[in-house]
């Protein structure tokens, strides 16, 4: 059959079109296959990279950071409990408890895991005695640990535990309790909420009474609840050491009661009484007024907490004549019967006049002290001169601490280079010098104890409850005068009580030796003395021949009367009378339990 060439061309064109379409489809399939292959390769590479990263991460977690992460995980399920030792107790010399520790529970919270804080605060408010708003404010803290209330009784803790609140827990702690309340508060001192001593003996001997704490680990679940101890065989820390004081609770009680009565009678600003054994240096009582209950220490003003007997400074007035007189005797500058002209009560010296409280004329040296003549005392001091007078003042321990084992101040004694033209006419009878009550009593103890001053102390021994860990020995502090001088001065001070200004300090059945003191309070700016503001005092000891006790009585700013012989002497008498009854016949106590002065 004849085919037209045009037909052949058309056929060829159609065949070419079909061939081109085939090639196109083939190329397209090849392109899709290559794209799919690339995507597959990329996916495999990505998966392999992810796997490699995962392997690296696992290697990092297990091998590099594994130890730290395991520790962190363990810590999240552990809780460390501090087991505090029982704080040591404090007893008086006859083992009467003055401070003991009881068990208490302190409530704390972890606000980050606390559920329904509004409900919890509403429930806790009446139990804790804290407002709901205050509790919620604590819950808003970003800290993981906050105290809600410290030292709760066990019954209160049980009530709160019954609610089983998540995020609340308790820490067992010791709570300090003072069975005698206000008794000897200024000496014992008190502790803070962390059971750390803040004042007095509690602070001074804190390391002995607290010792070291122990720690134990417990497991806790995801809600923070305790499961079981990790070390069941843990041992509780050894309790703190106990202290046995030289204080006698009976004598302390007598001193506090009579001091308070006197301060109230004279509407005084305050007062102090110290009772010692002059032969040993043991403190039998330190009373201050005003006082405070140790169980409520944080609700009391600082003025009531001040241990006036050891901290407050005052001009001793005529009681200081003991120092001037004994120095002159020790230097053999005068004898007890030597006559001194007291100028009928007015003595002009260097342009100013020294006055006596009475118009005394010719007095023996003994009578000068008995009648407390300023003029006679200044004339005695003139024989000494300021250098020797100053040396005896220092020899008696004025201007420095006594060394008692609690907080005290050291007084103020000016160097002779700083004395004014009037100093020699003032210092001999207790002006221009500042002392503490303890310093004045310690100095007087030299007269009672044959010229020897024993270092005062309060803690008699430290014990573990059975055996003494440390027993404090007696220490001679100073020896300012000879035994002969002390004996002469003792007789003079007996005369001051029997015949002189201290007659109201006499105790029936005993011979008392002592000296009154009356001083006007100086202006803090140094511009003279304040009208109507006086410090009345009496310092003495008994029985005068073999002293069992020495005592000082200070009444600060009495109203109405102010002379030491009128205000302080009767207090000395009342306290001394009761103490001597107690030591000799009361409670069957034997006087030999307190070593008399040698």
Question: What is the quaternary state of this protein?
Answer: single chain
How would the global form be characterised? elongated
As residue ranges, the low-confidence spans are 229-233, 587-594
- Roughly what is the average pLDDT, rounded to an integer? 86
Give structural attributes:
598 residues; alpha+beta; Penicillin-binding protein 2a (Domain 2); Beta-lactamase; 3 domains; 7-stranded mixed beta sheet; 5-stranded antiparallel beta sheet; 21 strands; elongated
Structure explained in plain terms:
The protein is of the alpha+beta class. It has 3 domains: 5-75; 78-241, Penicillin-binding protein 2a (Domain 2); 249-296 and 309-593, DD-peptidase/beta-lactamase superfamily (Beta-lactamase, 3-Layer(aba) Sandwich), CATH 3.40.710.10. It is built from 18 helices and 21 strands. Strands 2, 3, 4, 5, 8, 16 and 17 form a 7-stranded mixed sheet that branches. It has a 5-stranded antiparallel sheet with strand order 10-9-21-20-19, with helices on both faces. The radius of gyration is 43 Å and the shape is elongated.
Short synopsis of the structure:
This protein has helices at 5-64, 66-76, 117-128, 132-139, 154-161, 185-188, 200-204, 206-210, 249-265, 302-305, 308-311, 321-330, 365-370, 374-395, 437-448, 483-498, 564-567, 569-584, and strands at 78-83, 90-91, 97-109, 146-152, 168-177, 214-220, 226-229, 242-245, 270-276, 283-289, 339-341, 346-349, 352-355, 362-364, 453-454, 459-463, 468-471, 476-478, 513-522, 529-542, 549-556. The protein has 598 residues and is an alpha+beta fold.
């Amino acid at each position: 059959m004849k085919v037209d060439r045009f037909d052949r061309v058309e056929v060829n064109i159609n065949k070419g079109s079909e061939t081109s379409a085939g090639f196109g489809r083939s190329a397209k399939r090849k392109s899709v296959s290559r794209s799919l292959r690339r995507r597959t390769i990329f996916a495999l590479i990505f998966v392999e990279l992810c796997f490699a990263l995962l392997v690296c991460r696992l290697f990092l977690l297990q091998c590099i950071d594994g130890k730290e992460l395991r520790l962190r995980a363990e810590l999240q399920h552990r809780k460390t409990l501090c087991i505090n030792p029982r704080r040591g107790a404090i007893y008086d010399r006859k083992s009467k408890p003055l401070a003991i520790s009881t068990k208490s529970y302190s409530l704390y919270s972890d606000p980050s895991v606390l559920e329904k804080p509004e409900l919890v605060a509403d429930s806790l408010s009446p139990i804790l005695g804290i407002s709901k708003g205050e509790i919620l404010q604590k819950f808003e803290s970003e800290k993981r640990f906050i105290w809600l209330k410290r030292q709760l009784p066990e019954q209160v803790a049980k009530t709160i535990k019954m609610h089983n609140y998540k995020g609340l827990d308790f820490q067992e702690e010791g709570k300090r309790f003072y069975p005698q309340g206000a008794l000897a508060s200024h000496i014992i001192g008190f502790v803070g909420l962390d059971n750390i001593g803040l004042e007095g003996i509690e602070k001074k001997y804190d390391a002995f009474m607290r010792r070291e704490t122990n720690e134990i680990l417990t497991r806790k679940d995801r809600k923070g609840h305790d499961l079981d101890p990790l070390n069941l065989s843990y041992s509780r820390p050894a309790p703190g050491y106990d202290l046995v004081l030289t204080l006698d609770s009976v004598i302390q009680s007598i001193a506090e009661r009579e001091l308070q009565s006197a301060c109230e009678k004279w509407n005084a600003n305050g007062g102090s009484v110290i009772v010692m054994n002059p032969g040993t240096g043991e403190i039998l009582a330190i009373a201050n007024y005003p006082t405070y209950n140790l169980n409520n220490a944080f609700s009391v003003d600082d003025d009531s907490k001040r241990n006036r007997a050891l901290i407050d400074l005052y001009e001793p007035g005529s009681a200081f004549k003991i120092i001037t007189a004994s120095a002159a005797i020790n230097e053999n500058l005068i004898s007890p019967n030597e006559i001194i002209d007291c100028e009928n009560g007015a003595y002009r010296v260097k342009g100013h006049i020294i006055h006596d409280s009475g118009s005394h004329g010719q007095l023996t040296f003994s009578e000068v002290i008995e009648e407390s003549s300023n003029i006679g005392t200044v004339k005695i001091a003139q024989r000494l001169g300021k250098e020797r007078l100053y040396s005896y003042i220092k020899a008696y321990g004025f201007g420095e601490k006594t060394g008692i084992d609690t907080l005290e101040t050291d007084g103020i004694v000016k160097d002779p280079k700083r004395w004014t033209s009037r100093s020699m006419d003032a210092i001999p009878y207790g002006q221009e010098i500042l002392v503490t009550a303890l310093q004045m009593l310690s100095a007087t103890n030299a007269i009672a104890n044959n010229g020897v001053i024993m270092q005062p102390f309060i803690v008699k021994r430290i014990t573990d409850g059975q055996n003494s860990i440390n027993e404090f020995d007696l220490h001679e502090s100073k020896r300012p005068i000879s035994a002969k001088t002390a004996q002469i001065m003792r007789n003079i001070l007996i005369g001051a009580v029997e015949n002189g200004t201290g007659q109201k300090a006499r105790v029936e059945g005993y011979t008392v030796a002592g000296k009154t003191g009356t001083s006007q309070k100086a202006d803090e700016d140094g511009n003279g003395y304040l009208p109507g503001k006086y410090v009345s005092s009496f310092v003495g000891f008994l029985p005068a021949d073999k002293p069992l006790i020495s005592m000082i009585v200070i009444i600060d700013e009495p109203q109405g009367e102010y002379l030491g012989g009128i205000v302080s002497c009767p207090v000395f008498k009342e306290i001394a009378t009761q103490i001597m009854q107690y030591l000799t016949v009361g409670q069957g106590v034997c006087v030999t339990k307190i070593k008399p002065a040698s």
